[in-house]
Amino acid sequence: MKVTGNLLVFCSIFLFWNFSHAYQDSSYSVIDERTFQLKVNALKNRLESFMLRVKKSKDQLRSNQEFSVMENFTFEDSKDSIIDMNDSEKSEPLSPSVMELPATGKQNSKVEKQSKPDFLSQEIIKKEPRQWDYYLGLSMGAYLPEKAGIREEPIFVPMEFEAGLSHALEWGIRFEDFSLSLSYTHANSKLSRESWKKWMESLGFPGMLPNSAGDLSQDLLHFELQYDYILSKGINLLMNLGFGYTITSLTELLENFPSRSSHDFSYLIGTGVSYDFNEFATLSLLLKQIGVFGDASFDPIDSYLVEIGFSVAY
Description:
rod-shaped; alpha+beta; two-stranded antiparallel ribbon; 10 strands; 7 helices
């Protein structure tokens, strides 16, 4: 029994000594206030160093974004941005939450809207207009044929003509200073009764005015080149040059003078003025001389046209 009691006492002392050393060496040892403060300061320094690195990274990211935006700027965009900057100086300053960069979320989207130009809208505005316009014109005016002679071997009758009317339709392409067009003109007049009377008197017959002296008609198809010289705002000086084909007909003549016609080439020279109501509608006043090449049973009948026209571009 003594041996057993001594053994129990020895084991108890041994266990107490082991537990006391283990408690002293554990991580739950008590530290003083100075040591605790040093550890807190060390953690603060590490946190400040980490925040400084984060700030530098954000600044670098912001500079890269600004550089990528500047690469897309053009000369025209830079002028627009200067105007926007002048306007922004007059407006209220931005709030600090929007001015601080870099920003995230809604703040970042506001900054992008202010810095990036709207390239799509600029392309629509800068679209160049068409370099020409199609136009359709209508005109009417006075038809003034020159003197001509009617031949019916061995008779030759010098003939004059009364003033008549002309109607024209024109379609063309108008450029900045000139236009190209295709025009069709129909003109008609009557032969002078006085000319028949003078001819009969020259033959020794008593002078009598015939009931009907005859009709003259011309159909003209011309390709025309017109040059526009600007005199003032909306007022232009016009110069025309054309070449084409003319059909001339004499009908309802006196007895023994059958109807006749001629198909000849012809030219056109003209000048006048025009007034532009707007970029689409134009009113014009033109004087044209028509010259006919031909050798038929009557002399080629040249003429003058005094026309008032109205054209619409589309």
